């Protein structure tokens, strides 16, 4: 399961898509936590604190490509539209016009109602550079603060208990145990107020379990002394499976040759460094689209989405092969994703060594809804490519995908899906928040670990459900909201 083990975490290595999800997603957060501060409307100031909308690198006219009224110019983390036109852009929207129906233009999928086809927004600066939490929140003006110290290459093993009279478990956790390298000595640091775990969807539950916070029976079985019985730690792991579908196309104006021709790459790299322009300022696709499955599926399996304005499916394009291309040919790829899945996995441990790898079981496609939804995503993709706009452009399907059609029977589609589905790296939910009085969940709506004192979790592990979107913008929104909670508690 890919994650960025680096300053800035996965935001330093991710695909930079900026997608907030639907208003329903956050209203569901508020409903399950019985706390309205997590609703879409109440999160808007925090989304705005995070986002700094910037013009795209090529300065093109963006009228009609986004809705300025739902964006912020004053936040920390740069967001912009693609700053390099792709040759497929006109066909992408012509097909939408030709097809109609579920293929509707959406001026701004970040307005709370994401369904339809829109221009992709990314965490890229107006200079065409990645905006990550390392380049934004740890930019020099913040990193110079006297009250901020960063220990590079430190790996946390556990949080350590002290006795507390005011917590229901009898413990506070204000000491962090860590090592500077895996063979080095274990060191400790104490917090006077509280410890905040932000080690991500795998790292945070891993540290909690190592520390004796988890399912007491499971911890006892492997020889870890259980201190706080929270069976939900590591459970509820939710990811969005995706498939990259590759097509050979009748064009040489794709990004494929950049990966094959070193002198061409040198040329565009020089252009990028000199002018901040060219193909390297953007990702390979400038659009994104979201759909709901047919109601027959939700009638049959139940609806895992957050509401009627929330997508189950995403389709995104790329003007070339995804990753290093084969030696010949030019490509279009269309990614299909189940963004509101029903399957749930887990993170567990089987060792008392805190640095041993945790066991990650994503249980992809185990819920029947998910495979049926991916079938539907593939059929929507074929419907999309049947628009006259694509006539003469798409030559054939490529690889394991060659013989799949919209009319393929379910068992053939299922085989293709099972052989090709992969993680979107949008994993959430392993230290989920729940209502204060709920008998499940890991953190309360203030993101404090239940039953203990002095310990919060603030990262993508606290999502109770995956948002129907890529997960960095929601993680930033949660983190900004949490920062205000911490200030309220101590200032
Ligand atoms: C390849 C990839 C592509 C993605 N593409 C997109 C995209 O295009 N758009 C989007 O919205 N989202 C995308 N995501 C998802 C998004 O980046 C994550 O949801 C988001 O970064 C999660 O933030 P986080 O703070 O929860 O965890 P992370 O960003 O993973 O940060 C966790 C941090 O904790 C550190 N850590 C972990 N364990 C320990 C430990 N024991 N001790 C010390 N430090 C530790 C890690 O080094 C890391 O710095 C992608 C993710 C990946 C990996």
From TrEMBL:
InterPro entries: FAD/NAD-bd_sf (IPR036188), GMC_OxRdtase (IPR012132), GMC_OxRdtase_N (IPR000172), GMC_OxRtase_C (IPR007867). FAD binds at residues 6, 156. Pfam families: GMC_oxred_C (PF05199), GMC_oxred_N (PF00732). Gene3D superfamilies: FAD/NAD(P)-binding domain, Glucose Oxidase, domain 3. Residues 2-241 form the Glucose-methanol-choline oxidoreductase N-terminal domain. It comes from the Eukaryota. The keyword Transport does not apply. SUPFAM superfamilies: FAD-linked reductases, C-terminal domain (SSF54373), FAD/NAD(P)-binding domain (SSF51905). The keyword Flavoprotein applies. GO terms for molecular function: flavin adenine dinucleotide binding; oxidoreductase activity, acting on CH-OH group of donors. The active site is at residues 426, 470. Residues 341-479 form the Glucose-methanol-choline oxidoreductase C-terminal domain. Keywords: FAD, Flavoprotein. Its cofactor is FAD. Belongs to the GMC oxidoreductase family. This is Alcohol oxidase.
